[in-house]
Design brief:
The relative contact order is 0.13. The strands form three sheets. The protein has a six-stranded parallel beta sheet with strand order 4-5-6-7-8-9. Helix 1 runs antiparallel to helix 4 (80-100), helix 2 packs across helix 4 (80-100) and helix 5 runs parallel beside helix 6 (160-169). The radius of gyration is 19 Å and the shape is globular. It is an alpha/beta fold. It has helices at 14-28, 41-49, 52-59, 80-100, 123-131, 160-169, 187-204, 208-211, 230-239, 245-249, 262-271, 302-306, 312-326, 330-339; strands spanning 3-8, 63-67, 105-107, 109-110, 138-140, 173-175, 217-219, 253-256, 277-278, 290-291, 296-297. 44% of the residues lie in helices and 10% in strands. The structure holds zinc ion.
């Protein structure tokens, strides 16, 4: 089985996104949000069949671990109750996709975060998504302010209520920022990669992995700048007397393969042990074009893994085994959804 651990519902029905605009406008005007739009099963099917499902089939992947559109989380918009209602709507839609296509999609939740609001606020929605929807992970935004970094770093106890739940449920978090609201940081060109890199560094200098020995984080987009600068982080960890980088980080931190060219993928596989790499494409996502140098979509990342000089057993870990290990509830959820 080929499991893509990083996909978002970027093709969600128009009325869902339109309601979000109305909801945010209503909050600004201190009015109640309008009722949520009705979305039929056929409308959902249409967005998936011609989109993510078509690409799964064309590219030869089987299952996408699927979450709400990341830039659309917009934790910097509105207030805590705006985020709560929006997260509920987005997660419900993901659950509907997973119910309509149980063999192809398994859900991951967005959290109703807001800048400078305790993440305790997110626990009820997290519980609901795991217990009612069978979701197997969360996306955790280290910067709900959208580029202003107003919350404490991920090593701060501020985040511990979420970490306690992650360990309790055996679900990993993908560290994933949302849209940038500052013109100095392009959302997908710099803010995402900065979020990945900053998240890794925040965890590295913290005691999170001493306090939660079983917790697991996935750093998306190939780990941002981290694998390329592994020597820098090894040296920083050494100077700060934190220990050997691979020993302090690699029991708990994993990297996905959303790197959109072969040389980057080669570097990732050379620097990071095979056991810590999870296949992902983030399709249909930030980079949708065709690479004129190869004639294939940049985000058709399976081709790069296929081209790596690794054994079939190692590739099977990247494509399937590691995902089943990192997402502790995944195998049981695959069984459950396959039976459905
Ligand atoms: Zn993403």
């Amino acid at each position: 089985m080929i499991i893509d651990c990083h996909g978002h519902y970027t093709t969600s029905p128009k009325q869902h996104e339109a309601w979000r605009t109305e909801q945010v406008e209503a909050q600004k005007a201190a009015k109640a949000a309008p009722p949520r739009p009705s979305i039929s099963d056929d409308e959902i099917r249409e967005t998936i069949v011609g989109g993510q499902l078509k690409l799964q089939r064309e590219r030869g992947t089987d299952l996408t671990i699927f979450s709400p559109r990341a830039a659309g989380m917009g934790h910097h918009l509105g207030d805590a109750s705006t985020s709560e209602a929006w997260a509920a709507a987005c997660n419900e839609l993901i659950h509907r996709v997973c119910s309509l296509f149980p063999k192809n999609f398994i859900g991951v939740a967005m959290l109703p975060q807001s800048a400078k609001v305790s993440p305790k606020n997110c626990l009820a929605e997290l519980d609901r998504c795991v217990n009612e929807y069978g979701m197997v992970g969360i996306n955790l935004n280290p910067d709900p302010s959208g580029g202003h970094w107003q919350d404490p770093p991920l090593g701060d106890r501020y985040w511990y209520p979420v970490y306690e739940k992650m360990v309790e449920y055996d679900i990993p978090a993908m560290i994933h920022v949302s849209a940038s609201c500052t013109p100095t940081h392009h959302t997908t060109g710099s803010h995402y990669l900065n979020g990945d890199t900053a998240g890794f560094n925040q965890l590295m200098v913290s005691s999170v992995f001493k306090d939660f020995t079983a917790i697991k984080f996935i750093i998306p987009h190939g780990g941002g700048g981290v694998p390329y600068h592994w020597g820098r982080y090894r040296g920083l960890a050494q100077d700060a007397k934190l220990g050997v980088l691979s020993e302090i980080m690699l029991k708990n931190v994993f990297f996905d393969t959303c790197v959109y060219h072969l040389p980057g993928q080669e570097l990732l596989a050379k620097v990071i042990p095979v056991d810590n790499i999870l296949f992902a494409s983030e399709m249909i996502g930030a980079v949708r074009g065709i690479d004129p140098e190869t004639g294939h979509h940049y985000d058709d990342t399976k081709r790069y893994i296929d081209a790596l000089p690794l054994s079939a057993a190692d590739k099977a870990k990247i494509f399937e085994g590691n995902a089943r290990r990192v997402y502790g509830r995944l195998s049981a959820q695959i069984e459950k959804q396959t039976r459905a």
